[in-house]
Amino acid sequence: MGARLIPLARPRYRVYALTRDGAQCAALRARGVTPIVGDLDKPHTLSALAGIAHDVVHLAPPPASGATDKRTAHLIAVLGNQRGNQRKTKNMRGSLPQHFVYISTSGVYGDCGGGLVPETRPARPQTERAQRRVDAERRLRAWGVRSGVAVSILRVPGIYADGRLPLARLQRGTPALADADDSFVNHVHADDLARLVMAALARARPGRAYNAVDDVPQKMGDYFDLVADRHGLPRPPRIARSEAARVIPENLLSFMSESRRLTNRRIKQELRFRLRYPSVHAGIPSLV
Q: Cβ distance 188 to 212 under 8 Å?
């Protein structure tokens, strides 16, 4: 995601990127990015982030376990909590960001029974993974109110693009659910998501959440069929939900247990965003 965002941001910003792998610094510099070596799991390594940026995009996922997102807590701590008394220099050191965009997940809504889901629907996470995202959202919103930073949240569903398609799953022949048992899923093309981040930095309202999603929710099995057809692979076999626990990996089954259809009115009306890929049919290339 960061690699797609960089060429959009560079004409407007001097771009910094946090990396915990010093070996990545040369590649980042080659892309015109200033690397900062630090680890969100090790707060003592993050001091260089303090006051360095006018706008911040938080792409890092939460930790792999637990119900809280300590990484986001560490980031908030180093960026600061008080506006007012801080000295501002030309390179912004000592000041808070003006805008902050957090890349969250549509999983915060939990299972919605296939219903339409606007951003006003309360978060009801059903997995620890989603609970950590809700924790991050709440921490960031509270920090935004406390500090005056304009925090906005993009709730992102399944991201797809070349190199981000379930080809290995299809090649393994992992089954999908029968249509009567299948769940609705939502998608966004990676290029549209990068452009949405830039739109949020420019026009998002403080404290606001936005469903970063295309126009056409689909049944999960139909999505797999489309990818298979366009890449010359066999369609996955369909099975009843009662059989799924026996043959489908648990982490994948958890996604199949949640069904929702996200609405995207806010990104169109408030962010004035126009999708390049309004559906997966427009965005998935045919390699056959």
A: yes
**Helices 2-9 and 190-203 meet at what angle, rounded to 10?**
50
Instruction: For tokens 């630090």, name the residue.
Output: 38
DSSP H helix total and E strand total for the chain: 11, 14
3-class DSSP state of 57: strand
Map 192-238 to HEC letters: HHHHHHHHHHHHCCCCCEEECCCCCCEEHHHHHHHHHHHCCCCCCCE
CA dist 60 and 119 (Å) reads 22
Helices (H), 80-189: 128-147, 167-172
CB neighbourhood size of 230 (10 A): 16
Radius of gyration of the chain measured on its C-alpha atoms: 20
CA atoms of 288 and 271, how far apart (whole Å): 36
DSSP 3-state of 141: helix
Q: Provide the CB-side half-sphere exposure for 94 (13 A, CA).
A: 8
Per-residue pLDDT tens over the stretch 198-248: 999 999 999 999 999 999 999 999 999 999 999 999 999 999 999 998 888
